[in-house]
């Protein structure tokens, strides 16, 4: 049996534990209020990432429904802010690319012959070289989808090349290998002269265009590699043509991607604003 003293001690202990529990609960609640306040301040100064991090901490520590509701609504406001920032940055990129593309206005000519399925754009400075059969060079082009690619031409050298390489004193870069298939890689002999040509897709030669653009003021050697190898030095006209063709195509491609992203962000913003309305705490 419990005596009176034991009962009094038990009641006292329960009372103390209850008081401590209430105190701890109040302390936790105050901490959560502080977190919410800090998250609100971070949002108001535009530090949306920090605000969300504070709200993540709040979610882990609070079980107060009212506080969590406020936190959820503040999170949607932060998401709206982040998306608006992305839209601003993306719009800035579109503007920059549009200005840069003006530099290439009038510098390219569209080429399409009757036997071609699709045409392409070529730098006007090398248009006159197209009809020259006996040439050894890489020709930069932009397809109808604004994608950069290269065509190699090798005349009078039985190299049987499958790739091309560019060299400078500071480095080098190679295209992917394209096996002889009488289509993308084709060869023929006319009047005892050998002709070799490869059409390199963007994925197979994009690094070459970038390399020339970054080294246009350096001496660049073009090497045709196959069973043998043969090299020439790119002249200034072709270095400029390759660099500007690559830059123009890259800008146009990036511009298309930025415009597409703009549409995506606008839809994302509408969804965020809808969530703001849904989480708004009504009086």
Large-scale geometry: elongated
Number of strands: 10
Describe the strand arrangement of the main beta sheet, using strand numbers: 1-2-3-4-8-7
- Tell me the structural class: alpha+beta
What fraction of the residues are assigned to beta strands by DSSP?
15-25%
Low-pLDDT stretches are 7-27
String of helices and strands: HHHEEEEEEEEHEEH
Main sheet overview:
6 strands, antiparallel
Average pLDDT over all residues: 89
Gyration radius over CA: 34 Å
How far from one another are the termini? Answer: 55 Å
Question: Would you kindly provide a written description of the structure presented here, covering whatever features stand out?
Answer:
The chain has 283 residues and is an alpha+beta fold. The protein has 5 helices and 10 strands. The chain has helices at 4-44, 48-61, 65-101, 202-214, 236-279, and strands at residues 108-111, 120-123, 137-143, 148-155, 163-167, 172-174, 185-190, 193-200, 221-225, 229-233. The chain has a 6-stranded antiparallel beta sheet with strand order 1-2-3-4-8-7, covered by helices on one side. Strands 6-5-9-10 form a 4-stranded antiparallel beta sheet, covered by helices on one side. The longest helix is centred in the C-terminal third of the chain and has 44 residues, at 236-279. The radius of gyration is 34 Å and the shape is elongated.
């Amino acid at each position: 049996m419990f005596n009176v003293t034991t009962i009094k001690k038990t009641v006292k202990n329960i009372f103390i534990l209850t008081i401590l529990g209430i105190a701890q609960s109040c302390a936790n609640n105050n901490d959560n209020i502080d977190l919410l306040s800090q998250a609100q301040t971070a949002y108001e100064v535009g530090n949306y990432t920090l605000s969300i991090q504070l709200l993540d901490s709040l979610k882990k520590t609070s079980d107060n429904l009212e506080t969590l509701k406020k936190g959820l609504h503040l999170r949607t406001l932060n998401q709206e802010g982040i998306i608006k920032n992305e839209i601003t940055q993306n719009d800035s990129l579109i503007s920059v690319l549009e200005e840069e593309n003006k530099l290439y206005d009038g510098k390219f000519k569209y080429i399409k012959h009757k036997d071609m399925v699709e045409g392409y754009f070529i730098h006007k400075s090398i248009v006159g070289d197209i009809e020259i059969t006996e040439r050894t060079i890489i020709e930069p082009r932009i397809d109808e989808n604004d994608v950069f690619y290269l065509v190699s031409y090798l005349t009078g050298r039985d190299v049987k090349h499958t790739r091309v390489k560019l060299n400078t004193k500071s480095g080098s870069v190679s295209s992917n290998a394209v096996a002889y298939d009488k289509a993308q890689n084709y060869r023929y002999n006319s009047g005892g002269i050998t002709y070799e040509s490869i059409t390199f897709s963007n994925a197979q030669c994009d690094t070459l265009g970038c390399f020339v653009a970054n080294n246009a003021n350096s001496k660049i050697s073009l090497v045709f590699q196959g069973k043998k190898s043969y090299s020439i030095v790119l002249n200034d006209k072709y270095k400029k043509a390759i660099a500007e063709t690559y830059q123009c195509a890259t800008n146009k491609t990036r511009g298309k991607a930025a415009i597409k992203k703009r549409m995506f962000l606008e839809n994302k913003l509408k969804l965020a604003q809808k969530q703001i309305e849904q989480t708004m705490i009504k009086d």
